[in-house]
Amino acid sequence: MRSPSLVPVLTASLVTIAAGAAMSLQGRANGLLGLVLGHAVFAALISFLVGLLCVGIALAVSARSRTSARRLVGLLRDRSLPWWMLLGGLSGGLVVIAQATTIPLMGVAMFTMAFVSGQVTGGLIVDSTELPPGGRQRLNVLRILGVLIVLASLAFAAGDRLQSGIPLWTPLLPFVSGALTSVQQAFNGHIRAATESVVVATTVNFTVGFAALVIGTVVLLMTGVAWRGFPTAPDQWWILLGGAFGVVFIALTTVTVARLGVLLLSLFALFGNLVGALALDALLPIPGSEVTLITVVSAVGVLIGIVVTILPVPVRPSSGNRRGPASRT
């Protein structure tokens, strides 16, 4: 009987979709926080501080994670792991800055489409280099076609928003931050492989990003940019939790990837992200973020492009092998 085995897979799928939706909440929270604090960098600083506290607690209570952290220090000392592999957190900081800067102008759905489009495009480029832990991956027709579908869908949505008056840099900033996220993921993969710890890799990201944002905040304050203060309205407390939403996403997907695999995990997470973003803009719209038919069609197009991108390429048996595909070991 197969029905019992479907329950864990279905549960993992729903959890991953919920984790993806949490990422859309992170975007809305950081977008609103930037308006309250007075600058996107301030919002990114608070988001990273909250995330760093969460992963710092996880690191402190886990003996295995602490051992992995010591292993990372040793690898850096003997230069087995290049120091620049630690800089992935800079990309994470840019993502939060992009959220805080652009979501108030164009909404969560448009940000998500631009970010995912950049992520898919960046992934195609990064995978053709030696950066990923698994080494270089050859380009194939399906991946290129999927990326083209994603970019066409983004252009369709962006064209509509540009006509409404938003500047061109608004969709470009999340696109660039999404593309750089692919580099961050490659760096994280090396750190995870070297330390055998997701907690350590995540802590490194938040630590490096937080340090960079502290410097950015000091520079802004010295140049006269005012920190307006923390949220005071009773219904605004949740916008301080952007970093926590990010940690929730990492924690949940770390558990469900063993049940779903990387491909299904990516699909369900992105589906949840897009659906959550559309729901936020539809139910709690901000000026300029109203969900239109063009937005929905573009989101569906982005999702279709992602599906095409992750489809496995059929392997043809060699002409000299008459016995059919070799069995996997």
| Percent strand | under 5%
- Write the H/E string, N to C: HHHHHHHHH
Low-confidence stretches: 321-329
Helix/strand-derived category reads mainly alpha
User: What's the structural domain tally?
Assistant: 1
* Secondary structure tally, helices: 9
From the alpha carbons, calculate the radius of gyration and give it in angstroms: 21 Å
Mean pLDDT: 84
What sort of overall outline do the alpha carbons produce when their principal axes are compared? globular
Helix content: over 70%
- Give the terminus-to-terminus CA distance: 26 Å
Number of strands: 0
Organism: Brevibacterium linens ATCC 9172
Protein name: Transporter family-2 protein
Keywords: Membrane, Transmembrane, Transmembrane helix
InterPro entries: YdcZ (IPR006750)
Please tell me about this protein's structure.
With 329 residues, this protein is mainly α. The protein has one domain. Helix content is 75%, strand content 0%. The protein has 9 helices and no strands. The C terminus is likely disordered. It holds the Pfam family DMT_YdcZ. This is Transporter family-2 protein. It comes from Brevibacterium linens ATCC 9172. Keywords: Membrane, Transmembrane, Transmembrane helix.
Write the layout of secondary structure elements.
Blueprint: H1 3-37, H2 40-61, H3 63-77, H4 88-126, H5 141-163, H6 169-195, H7 198-222, H8 242-283, H9 293-310
Helix pairs in contact: 1-2, 1-4, 1-8, 2-4, 2-7, 2-8, 4-5, 4-6, 4-7, 4-8, 4-9, 5-9, 6-7, 8-9
